[in-house]
Design a protein that fits this description.
293 residues, alpha/beta, 13 helices, 7 strands, 48% helix
């Protein structure tokens, strides 16, 4: 890991702004919007992490639970950095967000087996611990990070798509939690809190519960203002306002749907060389999407 004179990081013989917002990787990544619900999730995650409890986060699909969790853990940057550890040559700096959160992110497969979960949980945690150790000492003592019974420097484990876990999988999560000094957050759909109540040993360890809610109208308007700036003073401001109201009504606070429809709107406006937003463009974008009611 060798920093360059101009602040860039040296990677495989080339300078690479690995975590720089101007890098191609960062530019191609969807822009993350910090909403009120995300800030509530951050406070919830910090509390679970600090008190080493099991926390439960649930909410409707598409409202931003996974995005918030991945942003909190710095998962996207980590997924790009960690594979480089197996290559020859110096490593770029460990992603800052991963070092700050010390949070592992794990998503079980749809048909996750007992073995996959048993290996996946400690592996996810050991990778983060490895990164913290490397950032601190520029090397890793292999004797410290080979035993799956130790969490090392990992302070929080987030398990997404918890609904996929069957009874044995949930029992493995409980057993893993009991053997490690870390917090655990389970993310799932509405109703998972009732399902977990059928497993008293796990349910009794849940210290915090957090319902992730859809975006409020004011937040949707703020997000749309970033996507579609104020119209030309000489343009049709009434049509612009009507289009924004139509998007607000169609998306109903669903973050995923909001991202999909804005992408379609921009595509249609580019095809037609159109700069002004209007209800006709929103209708055309809506027709090209599969939207459940």
């Amino acid at each position: 890991m060798t920093p360059g004179d101009d602040g860039r990081r040296f990677l495989n013989g080339h300078f690479d702004e690995f975590t720089n917002a101007a890098s191609p990787v960062a530019r191609n990544r969807p822009r993350f919007v910090s909403t009120r619900e995300h800030r509530r999730f951050v406070e919830f995650a910090d509390t679970v992490r600090a008190h080493r409890y099991i926390g439960l986060c649930y909410g409707a699909p598409g409202i931003g639970k996974t995005l918030s969790a991945r942003n909190y853990a710095g998962t996207d940057d980590w997924k790009l950095w960690f594979p480089l550890a197996g290559e020859d040559g110096p490593l770029p700096a460990v992603p800052e967000r991963a070092l700050e959160s010390r949070t592992a992110f794990f998503t079980p497969t749809v048909a996750a087996t007992i073995k996959q979960i048993d290996l996946g949980l400690p592996r996810a945690c050991q990778q983060i611990s490895w990164g913290v150790e490397y950032a601190t000492y520029s090397h890793v003592d292999p004797l410290v990070h080979t035993d799956s019974q130790h969490s090392g420097h990992t302070e929080l484990l987030i398990i997404d798509e918890t609904d996929r876990l069957k009874a044995t999988g949930l029992e493995q999560v409980r057993d893993f939690y009991d053997r490690h000094a870390m917090g655990v957050i389970l993310i799932g759909m509405p109703g998972i809190e009732k399902r977990l109540a059928r497993y008293p040993q796990l349910y009794s360890r849940i210290g915090f519960s957090h319902e992730y809610r859809p975006l409020q109208p004011g937040e949707v308007s703020a997000v749309l203002a970033g996507y579609f700036p104020n119209p030309d003073p000489h343009g049709d401001s009434i049509a612009h306002a009507a289009a924004l109201a139509s998007i607000l009504r169609v998306t109903n606070g669903n973050f995923r749907l909001l991202d999909r429809i804005t992408t379609q709107i921009k595509r249609i406006m580019n095809i037609n060389h159109q700069e002004q937003l209007n209800p006709e463009v929103v209708d055309a974008a809506q027709q090209s999407l599969l939207i459940g009611h």
